[in-house]
Amino acid sequence: MCSAGGKEMAEVKKVSTPMSEEAAGGLRAGDEVLLSGEVFTARDMAHKRLCELIEKGESLPIELAGAVIYFVGPTPARAGAVIGSAGPTTSSRMDGFSPLLLSRGLKGMIGKGHRGAEVVAALKENGAVHFAATGGAGALLSKHIVSCEVVAYDDLGTEAIRRLVVDDFPVIVAYDSVGGCVYDNIGEVR
């Protein structure tokens, strides 16, 4: 721990994917995290399709056990770049789908904004976390993405499921696996 202006600041935690329940369980709301490894992108329509496959008992195009899904529809990459701007989208848009995906082994999600009570309960029940990424910083966040490939639903364009490899991708634990929520502490410095 270090001190800034008389307040203690927590150490940044490094987390790798796929995430174990132990790794998720060791994180608390407000923790600053540098995430490295494989992360999948998915937004509304991709979530809907994944849930429809689960409900039909069909196999999924990605492995959910220990996975982290980033709620993002990146812009096209410039010449020589891995990916375009990759900022988070509003997390609550995935609330209707997240509990089912969490029940199938999803351990982390990345987005921005609040989550509903059903998602918070599912995070606790399944030992998972929800991370917040900084909205409006998509160009900076993209610098932490070292590779990108479409793995499913190419017809969705920017909302296709992509496999990203990230290196020290900066996020904050917004909701932890024991019911903690960073939004409950707005205005406090940790």
Provide a compact summary of the structure:
The chain has 190 residues and is α/β, with parallel strands linked by helices. It is 21% helix and 28% strand.
Query: For the record, what is the CATH homologous superfamily label?
Result: Fe-S hydro-lyase, tartrate dehydratase beta-type, catalytic domain
The Cα radius of gyration reads: 16 Å
Kindly state the mean pLDDT as a whole number?
A: 91
Q: What is the number of independent domains?
A: 1
Basic shape: globular
Order of neighbouring strands in the sheet with most strands: 4-5-6-7-9
Largest sheet: 5 strands, mixed, barrel
Low-confidence stretches: 1-7
For this structure, the quaternary state is single chain
Residues in β-strands, percent:
25-35%
Helix content: 10-25%
CATH class descriptor: Alpha Beta
What's the number of helices? 5
Counted beta strands? 9
Q: Helices and strands: which structural class? A: alpha/beta
Distance between the termini: 10 Å
Characterization of the model:
Strands 4-5-6-7-9 form a 5-stranded mixed beta barrel. It is globular and about 45 Å long. Helices cover about 20% and strands about 30% of the residues. It has helices at about 20-25, 45-55, 100-105, 115-125, 140; strands spanning about 1-5, 5-10, 15, 30-40, 70, 110, 130, 145-150, 160-175. By secondary structure, it is an alpha/beta fold.
Features:
190 residues; alpha/beta; fumarase; 21% helix; disordered N terminus
Topology:
Blueprint: E1 2-4, E2 7-9, E3 13-16, H1 21-25, E4 32-41, H2 44-56, E5 68-70, H3 98-103, E6 108-111, H4 117-126, E7 129-132, H5 138-142, E8 145-152, E9 161-175
Parallel strand pairs: 3-4, 4-5, 5-6, 6-7
Antiparallel strand pairs: 1-2, 4-9, 7-9, 8-9
